[in-house]
Amino acid sequence: MRKRFLLSGLTLVAAATVVGWQVWSPVPPARPSPMSLVFEASDAYQFDPPAPGSYRLNRIKRAPDGRVLDIAGTEHSLHDLTRGKISLVSFVYLTCGDVNGCPLAMSVFFDVHDASGDLPGLNEDVQLLTISFDPARDTVEAIEAFAYPITSDEQAGDKLNWQVLTTSGPQELRPILDGYGQVVDRSEDQETISHLLRLFLVDRQGDIRNVYGLGFLDPRLLLTDIETLLMEEAGA
Amino acid sequence: MKRREFGALAAGALAMGLPFRAFADETCQSPYMPKITGQEEFVYVWTLGVEGMGDEQDKLVTIDLRPGSATRGQVINSVSVGGRNEAHHGGFSADRRFFWTGGLDTNRIFIFDVHSDPSNPKLHKTIDTFVKDSGGVVGPHTFFALPGSMMITGLSNDDDHGGRTALVEYNDDGEYVATYWMPTADDMQGAVAVGDAVADGYGYDIRALIRKNVMLTSSFTGWSNYMMDFGQMLQDAEAMKRFGNTIVQWDLHTRQPKKVFNVPGAPLEIRFPWGSNANYAFSTTALTSQLWLIYEDDAGEWQAKAVADIGNPADIPLPVDISIAADDQTLWINSFMDGKTRLFDISDPHKPFQIYEKVIDRQVNMVSQSWDGKRVYFSSSLLANWDKKGKDDAQYLKAYNWDGKELVEDFAVDFYELGLGRAHIMRFGSSALYSS
User: Fold this and answer.
1) What top-level branch of life does the organism fall under (chain B)?
2) Which residues from A are below 8 Å from B5, CB to CB?
3) Which residue of A has its CA nearest to B279?
4) Nearest to B169 among A58, A92, A194 (CB)
5) Which chain A residues have a beta carbon less than 8 Å from that of B9?
6) Which of B25, B32, B211 minimises the CB distance to A45?
């Protein structure tokens, strides 16, 4: 009888535990679909984004490998950083002042980064990479300082991982720029650097699936493309 | 770091894909590639070789336009590419460092480096596998740059050499990416035929309005017609049926066709305006000699309608190239058969009207204008087998000054006299575009 009572008691405790787990375990909030709903339309883009998964993203070319440095000065292979997650990659230099240049790229990344807080779980699949093409001035110390608002964000854990990277010099930088097709041009005074604003969408396998330039930097389109890739992976 | 708010962008900058569109291209140095708002320094002329003339090869000819230059108005360089390919059109890469050109007969694509020395382009790469890569597309015609890739329109196919064709996308390294076959009545691919439109599957030009995510393509004819002798074709009733009658609206981002408009008589060049609220495009029909407007209506739907005649359509002047002014107020329209250029006031795009005309020569095809509209350039060749014969076969580049009232000739380059060949598409170059 005691055994049966004990067994019943254990069963009751187990059942209560299960119920308790269901009550107390945080249920992940639903992610909006399409994900682009987290953004409002802007005057710059006067259209509705296509439905995610209603089109295919071509394999444009293989994203190149290269040696990069993170904000701690640790060297990584770019392929190691991009493999395994869908990556949005941008190229900037941190002393850029043209409003339609690097600050625009950064603004779009900040928008996507902030919005990712409302896209639970997306950070398991997607990340942001910003790579400097001015290693002389964008040293490890400089990118660490630049990245501070990102790394010190209290909600960083809920948002997309955003790595700010540099290189040790032109020799390491050149194959990355050439491989991506990121055109950079230094003027004779070496102070000003011209480049074409480009963002690259790289899939988990390391293929560039889309390239965005000025006029295409609608964050709704970026998220639609990301969602399309996720659906492709899921076999939808 | 503070995020910055951005208002409307000059997204229209990339809308048309014309060379001086690159001016407003993105930059961290304003501007990376400055628009040639001042003086264009060079003009590159993609030229067809002629049997028995000079080296008989297709070539990229460079003419000096620099004021005060000892060689202004003269050919200063020429790059021959081997053979006669039916050289036709070309387009710059989005970074404007390379000029992609096509041969409509051999389907070879020649990519020139125009940034290392803008006065002296060099052949950088040749693509010999266009037909095989694309799965049977023939006749690489328009080269429209997108970030990271080049969208090329076909004119024909290697199955029946008729007008059914596709768009073909390559990456900036010249590697094949994808083929998008034009919608046909049998396979609309989700597109809707508007009114009487019958999707013929034909292609010709491509232009986009990025702000609206709209891409438009037009329709011409296939290899069996464009390589046929013009006079012979005019007598061939069956051949004359094989011309395009459609403009297709596409979703630019997804590359999917959305609408097929009935635009009878072979609509050719398409041009979007520059204005940030200008939601329309023009095209002209070669056989029916009409100016067409493709526009967004009040309900946000795109429509197409004829808005003017060009000359007397019964004469079949054969409108060919067009050029829209930077201020969207005027449109040059050339007509091949009467050798005329006509200027239309398009300040109200729904009610355009002609305000000027001039005979350029016995035949005329291409027209390009400077950013300020004060200099207008014309060239002669349409197709090797369609150009006029004998003394009417004038082959040239002619430069004019336009003061708002009259075109006054500045200089002329006789391409036959110099043993070069048939002058076709023109595109401007400038060393100011590149810092290093």
Assistant:
1) Bacteria
2) 107
3) A46
4) A58
5) 44, 100, 214-215, 217
6) B211
Question: What confidence score (pLDDT) does residue A27 get?
Answer: 52
| Among chain A residues, CA nearest to B254 | A55
User: By CB neighbour count within 10 A (0-12 exposed, 13-18 middle, 19+ buried), where does B53 fall?
Assistant: middle
Q: How far is B11 from chain A (nearest CA, A)?
A: 4
* CB-based contact B377:B369 (threshold 8 Å): yes
pLDDT for residue B339 is more than 50: yes
CB contact under 8 A, B253 and A183: no
Q: Give the nearest chain B residue to A51 (CA atoms).
A: B254
* Cβ within 8 Å, pair B13-A181: no
Q: What confidence score (pLDDT) does residue B17 get?
A: 29
Closest to B221 (Cα-Cα) out of B382, B363, B99, B426: B382
Name the range with the highest mean pLDDT among A7-11, A21-25, B205-209: B205-209
Side-chain half-sphere exposure of B98, counting CA atoms within 13 A? 24
How far, in Å, CA of B99 to CA of B94, rounded? 10
B29 — pLDDT class (breaks 50, 70, 90): very low
CATH of B128-411, one of 2.130.10.10, 1.10.287.130, 3.30.497.10, 2.60.40.420: 2.130.10.10
Tell me whether residues A181 and B172 touch, CB distance under 8 A.
yes
Tokens of B163: 């007008």
pLDDT of residue B5: 20
Domain boundaries, chain A: 36-233
Mean pLDDT, rounded, of chain B: 91
The answer to whether residues A45 and A220 touch, using CB atoms and an 8 Å cutoff, is yes
Q: Does residue B31 surpass a pLDDT of 50?
A: no
Residues of B in contact with A183 (CB under 8 A): 32, 95, 97
A77 Cβ under 8 Å from any chain B Cβ = no
Confidence band of A197 (pLDDT split at 50, 70, 90) = confident
- Confidence band of A105 (pLDDT split at 50, 70, 90): confident
ipTM computed for the complex: 0.90
Rounded CA separation B173/B434 (Å): 20
Domain ranges of chain B: 128-411
DSSP A214: T
pLDDT at A66: 97
What is residue A98's predicted lDDT score, i.e. its pLDDT?
67
Distance from CA of B385 to the nearest CA of A (A): 37
- Among A149, A208, A221, the residue with its CB nearest the CB of B1 is A149
> Given an 8 Å threshold on Cβ–Cβ distance, is A215 in contact with B211?
yes
Q: CA-CA distances (angstroms) from residue A12 to A1, A6, B288?
A: 16, 10, 87
Percent of chain A with pLDDT over 70: 83
Phi, psi of B45 (to 5 degrees): -120, 115
CATH class of the region A36-233: alpha beta
pLDDT digits (tens, 9 = 90+) for B145-181: 999 999 999 999 999 999 999 999 999 999 999 999 9
User: What is residue B26's predicted lDDT score, i.e. its pLDDT?
Assistant: 29
